Amino acid sequence: VQLQASGGGLVQAGGSLRLSCETSGNFWRANVMGWYRQVSGNQRELVARITIGGRTNYKDSVKGRFTVSRDNAKDTDTVYLQMNNLKPEDTGVYYCKVEIPYDGDYWGQGTQVTVSS
Questions:
Q1: Which residue in 9, 82, 102, 105 has the fewest CB atoms around it within 10 Å?
Q2: pLDDT tens digits, residue range 47-104?
Q3: CA-to-CA dists, residue 43 to 19, 46, 86, 95, angstroms
Q4: How far apart are CA 13 and CA 33, in angstroms?
């Protein structure tokens, strides 16, 4: 199973970015797909996640600004994170994670998001 993440970058506070992460090589559809953030060697923390049924969970600090979605229509599973009204505290390395039934959990490579004040 391979995950390909993209969409990070440098943006000013108040700006927007959209992250995407495409999964390939999995036989079963991903049950849960999500985004985690890691800052300066700290543990990765959940930012947002979405189930195959569309149920979502968000970190409190991003509610109302970030939207997680997924595309189940294609043969591959893709998860998106639309980030609006970005703040400097949103800065970090963002990782996508997928949970595949009867298989396991997989992480994508990180993508850097930097928000300048």
A1: 102
A2: 999 999 999 999 999 999 999 999 977 778 999 999 999 999 999 999 999 999 988 9
A3: 20, 10, 21, 12
A4: 27
What is the full DSSP assignment across the chain?
A: -EEEEE--EEEETT--EEEEEEEES-SSPPSEEEEEEE-TTPPPEEEEEEETT--EEE-GGGTTTEEEEEE-SSSSEEEEEEE-S--GGG-EEEEEEEEETTTEEEEPPPEEEEEE-
**pLDDT tens, residue by residue, 25-36:** 888 888 999 999
pLDDT in tens, 102-117: 889 999 999 999 999 9
Both tokens of 8, joined, read: 């990070």
